[in-house]
Write a structure and sequence with these properties.
129 residues; mainly alpha; Ribonuclease iii, N-terminal Endonuclease Domain, Chain A; globular
Amino acid sequence: MHDGVIGADLPTTAALAYLGDARHALFVRRMLVERGICKSGELNEAALAYVTAEAQAAMMRKIEHLLLDDERDVYRRAQNSGHLNRPRHASAADYRAATGFEAVIGMLEWLGDEERLEMLLSVAHNDEK
């Protein structure tokens, strides 16, 4: 467990979201390769369904009830961060939720909590596996 580790021990929520974006992309890529997709064009096209703000916001809704207090705090801080530059195709609510999702994933990656990370990502992707 990592409850209670928030604060000065963590990078900024923007940095956590950046790290979480990369870690989530790796999870998605592995999932797609495990499905037997082998061509890079097909892999890239399939990955787009999972890395959009809309898709990540939906994943966040799947795992939000499972968040520990420190994860919930990082999610709220990232979601409410003022620097967000929303892409045109995403709603503000989805973009904020996606940023929060990425920050939670980034926090778990930063802390090295692989078991928790895999559990939350598996739940978030439970319809896809």
